[in-house]
Design the sequence.
């Protein structure tokens, strides 16, 4: 087995961590997911950038949350948010229209809320 230089391993690990959302968010947006609603606290976002959607599941079912472009392409997702727990989804958004979808029971098209990035 060949030894990997420590410097190379450090650079590779740092690059991997940065790709996992290490960038600071421009704004944190609260999302409350229930079994019947997907409430996004701010639907008019102030310009392109990385947004942190702090999802709190107040429902009785495990949920997942997605951000989609206006034409239905997935931007980012966070899954397995249990009842009474919170998770954060980071998404890099350009100016335009998007939808935040909460999927109670982790199935179906979800309950969608329109958002706009100015």
Sequence:
């Amino acid at each position: 087995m060949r030894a990997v230089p420590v410097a190379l391993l450090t650079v590779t690990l740092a690059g991997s961590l940065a790709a996992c959302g290490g960038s600071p968010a421009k704004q944190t947006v609260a999302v409350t997911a229930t079994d019947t609603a997907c409430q996004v606290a701010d639907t008019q976002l102030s310009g392109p950038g990385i947004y942190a959607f702090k999802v709190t599941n107040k429902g009785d079912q495990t949920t997942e949350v997605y951000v989609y472009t206006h034409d239905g392409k997935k931007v980012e997702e966070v899954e397995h948010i249990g009842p009474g727990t919170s998770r954060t989804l980071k998404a890099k958004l350009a100016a335009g229209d998007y939808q935040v979808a909460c999927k109670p029971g982790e199935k179906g098209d979800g309950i969608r809320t329109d958002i706009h990035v100015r």
User: Anything to note?
Assistant: Residues 27 and 40 are 13 Å apart (CA to CA). The longest helix spans residues 6-19. The longest strand covers residues 49-57.
